[in-house]
Amino acid sequence: MPKVPLPDMLADAEKSGYAIGYFEAWDLYSLEAVVSAAEAENSPVIIGIGGLSANHEWLTSAGIDIYGSVCSLLAQRSRVPTALLFNEAEDFTEASRGLGAGFNAVMMHTQGWGWNRLIADTCLLVEAAHKQEIAVEGEVGALAEMSIDGEIDTTIGAMTEVAQAVQFVDETKVDCLAIAVGNVHFVTSDYVPTIDVRRIEEIRDAVEVPLVLHGGSGTPADQMRSAIGAGISKVNVGTRLKHAFGQGLRDGLNSGQDPNLLFGSRLPDDVNSRAAAELNKEVRRLMRVFGSEGRA
Ligand SMILES: [Zn+2]
Q1: Ligand 1: distance of its center to the CA of 237 in Å?
Q2: What is the CA(131)–ligand 1 centre distance, in A?
Q3: What's the topology of domain 6-290?
Q4: Domain spans of the chain, in order of start
């Protein structure tokens, strides 16, 4: 079916009290696995790629266009409502490349920017994007991050203030708003963040656009359900999916088969297909946590 506008998708989620996952992918196998999980769960879905841990030279030279085209084709063939997000672009210039590439939603990684730049560059992106009926996700506040050795860097984190959220949405006209409410990026260990559910409710009552929770990998199911009940309509997940994919790859490589079967065969021994099957399982599980199954 044709790609579905992100605001339409999130409006339904907000009205009905569930959340839609943005499941970050990085290649053809992972993108296909997310779409097939959504079809199996009969769930709306947001597919795409992100800039947060990517090579920006590669992204801007070809990556954004290649994956924009692939995502568009997959959305057309998808049997469930599908939106296409270029997530966490490095800056306005990189995000702008997503506008002509086939994505129907873009977001910049603005954490750490000063307020004036945040407002000015978001306004520029919204103006350019809305002319092409492309949605913009904005962000106020900053998430703490987990480093590769499992340490949490809280010094970069800043909770979203209600008044700032209101002013930001008012001035920029973004279509949805990512907030920092105790959620943490890149969690791979048993670390359990504490989500400030009350703060989500306060922000939801004060702003008119759907709210987004990044750091979906580390937020356990019970806290996730509370966050969605309090007003989260979109959840971003990346790290956890890469973890599942990596496990499938390792299992596949250890099986020691003929390389012609291991790579590119699309048969059960194909290591990427095996990894994609693990990713697919994890996405389906998360869709049931978000309550988006059966909502397509
Ligand atoms: Zn994120």
Answers
A1: 8
A2: 25
A3: TIM Barrel (3.20.20)
A4: 6-290
Q: Residue 176 Cα, ligand 1 centroid: separation in angstroms?
A: 14
Token digits for 294? 């059966």
Rounded to the nearest angstrom, the distance between the alpha carbon of 67 and the centre of ligand 1 is 18
Q: How many Å separate Cα 150 from the centre of its chain?
A: 22
What's the CA-to-centroid distance between 16 and ligand 1, angstroms? 24
Instruction: Spell out the residues 6+ positions from residue 168 whose beta carbon is closer than 8 angstroms to its own.
Output: 118, 119, 122, 138, 140, 174, 177
Within the chain, what is the greatest distance between any pair of CA atoms?
Answer: 60
Query: Between vectors from CA 83 to CA 8 and to CA 222, what angle results, nearest 5°?
Result: 80
Q: For residue 215, how far is its CA from the centre of ligand 1 (angstroms)?
A: 6
Give 245-256 as a DSSP string: HHHHHHHHHHT-
Residue 256 CA to ligand 1 center (angstroms) comes to 36
Amino acid residing at 247? Q
pTM: 0.96
- Return averaged pLDDT per consecutive 10 residues of the chain, 296 residues in all: 95 97 98 98 98 94 96 97 98 96 97 96 98 98 85 84 98 98 86 93 98 93 96 96 95 87 93 97 98 98
Pairing of strands 184-185, 135-140: unpaired
- How many whole angstroms separate alpha carbon 196 and alpha carbon 190? 19
What is d(CA 260, CA 264) in angstroms, rounded to the nearest whole number?
7
What contacts 191, CB < 8 A, 6 or more positions away? 146, 150, 152, 184, 218
Give CA separation, 92 vs 22, 27, 29, 175, 217, in Å.
21, 24, 29, 16, 26
The answer for residues whose C-beta is within 8 angstroms of residue 274's C-beta and 6 or more apart is 248, 249, 251, 252, 268
